[in-house]
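Internal tracking record. Fields below are filled automatically when a chain is submitted to the structure queue. Please do not edit lines marked as system-generated. If the sequence contains nonstandard residues, flag them in the REMARKS field before resubmitting.
Queue: standard
Priority: normal
Entity type: single polypeptide chain
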Amino acid sequence: MPAFFWLGQYTKGFWACFFEPYAGYLHVIPRIISAVADWFPYSWAPVVYVWSAAVVTGWTAATIASLVLPYAMSVMLGVSIVLVAHGGEVWATATNLQWITATALPLIAITQTPSSLVARANQFTFVAMASLSGPFSLIAAPLWIYRLWRTPRHRRFDLALCELALLSAGCTLIVILLHPGASPDSSQFFALTAVSLERSCEPAVEELVARAGFGPKLAPFSNLLMARDFLSKRVMRQHVKRVDRFSAVLPSALESAPVLETVWKRSSTLPSGAR
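SYSTEM-GENERATED OUTPUT FOLLOWS
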């Protein structure tokens, strides 16, 4: 939320909150926008935030459009980030700029280095700021590792760019590990990631087992995931505590946990057509 970054700039100053994590990771670009907005009267802050978000979005589009790709393809890729259907939440807000800038990181990693000095400086600056704004530099890290491995040693800019991206990804990983509870939404970051990966792999595992002749389903695997999810409370614990704020049926967190467990266990035993 922009108000969070504005408040940090107002109460602590730029350098005191520049590397302060929110939601478990860094937000360098919103912090810089907050510092710029601090130069203006407070009544102008909403306007500065909105226009700054628009400028960063345009910067991302221009960076993508300047990639070493066929001209039509690079322009279409750059424009596409503002043509995606949405619900009005992502655009024109400094908080969600990480979703916009993240689209350019893997594209920069897999394309050749531009010959223009201005384009190289732009890529270097963009990678530094975007990689430290959000957790998405970790997702692009394998691409940077591969590029670093394939880059000849005499191409110094490529090496520096890869090292910068990987160093930023390492800093992001350290911040996430050291500040897992920076906000209620990030306290279960790794648990949710692990569960998502396991859920995604479950159909593939069942198909492999079925092809091997061991049966069409792998019920013990599903039961193990279900037991791990709910008995350990790693995923539901923080969210169940907030159920009593909006649920008239489940008035307390202590009552909501067993009800949610029972509902999920019963629904998992129903035939697929009855759910």
